[in-house]
Amino acid sequence: MGKRYVFNNLWGADTGTGSQSVWGRDLDSQTTWGTRWDWRGREDTIKSYAAVVTGWHWGWRIAGTGLPVRVNAIRHARTHWEFDLIEDSAGGYNVTYDMWLSGNPHIDDENPSGEIMVWLHYSEGIQPIGGKREEIAVNGVPWALWEGPHPESGWPVYSFVRGENTDRASLDLADFLRLLAARGLNDAEYVTSVQAGIEVFTGKGRLETGAYSLDMECVKQGGAGESGY
């Protein structure tokens, strides 16, 4: 859909039973999309992360997105997301942005070097990877910053968890990148992908996005292979 694609990412489906579907369409700079799921099985494992993707995902990509781009070259990454979350039966989930990092601008199907999540809405009892590092405010909105290694692959995961759930957000994701850079994140790393979706553990329901947009403003970069796929 233009510079984005909807990805029905069922990476943890083998820890349960069920199904999931996605749909989507792109109109100018706005994307509407949705997903429906019905998952049973282990309550402590993620079954899926259906998402709209700009950039890379383990070899998948669309040209012309402007990604990858170095963290220190991103002036703004303004995004707006409005969604409805409907639960037909209770389960575990979190609605989140997911940004992926790599030292290699030509990353293909290898693992990334880091992951940054921005949680907007989540069910009771669901927590990010690692432990809570600090409470922080971004443009007056309280967030909790969590940090820890991915339990299987070991790359660092940084998660900003919103103090109160919301079903609409207007954010500049560059604000979160700058906060992490001030706390030691290597800002010469590349952001290879910006994704927005829902991690589902169990339950039955649907997520319907009425509007989604992402507009990135970056400093012009030099060097071959540093200006996007």
CATH topology: Jelly Rolls
CATH homologous superfamily, by name? Glycoside hydrolase family 11/12, catalytic domain
* Largest sheet entry: 9 strands, mixed
Poorly predicted regions: 223-229
- The structural domain count equals 1
Structural class by secondary-structure content: mainly beta
Strand coverage percent: over 45%
Helices and strands, in N-to-C order?
EEEEEEEEEEEEHEE
The count of DSSP E runs of length 2 or more, i.e. the number of strands, is 14
Q: What multimeric state do the chains show?
A: single chain
Shape, principal axes of CA atoms: globular
Rounded to an integer, what's the Rg over CA atoms?
17 Å
Number of helical segments with 4 or more residues: 1
N- to C-terminal separation?
A: 16 Å
CATH class, please?
Mainly Beta
Summarize this entry quickly.
With 229 residues, the protein is mainly β.
Tags for this entry?
229 residues; mainly beta; Jelly Rolls; 9-stranded mixed beta sheet; 5-stranded antiparallel beta sheet; 1 helix; disordered C terminus
Descriptive overview:
The protein has a single domain (5-218), classed as Jelly Rolls (Sandwich), CATH 2.60.120. It starts with a strand and ends in an 11-residue tail after the last strand. It has one helix at residues 173-182; strands at 5-7, 16-27, 30-41, 48-55, 69-70, 74-89, 93-102, 114-122, 131-138, 141-149, 156-162, 168-172, 190-200, 203-218. The longest helix has 10 residues, at 173-182. Strands 1, 4, 5, 7, 8, 9, 10, 11 and 13 form a nine-stranded mixed sheet that branches. Strands 2-3-14-6-12 form a five-stranded antiparallel sheet. With 229 residues, the chain is mainly beta. Mean pLDDT is 94; it is low at 223-229.
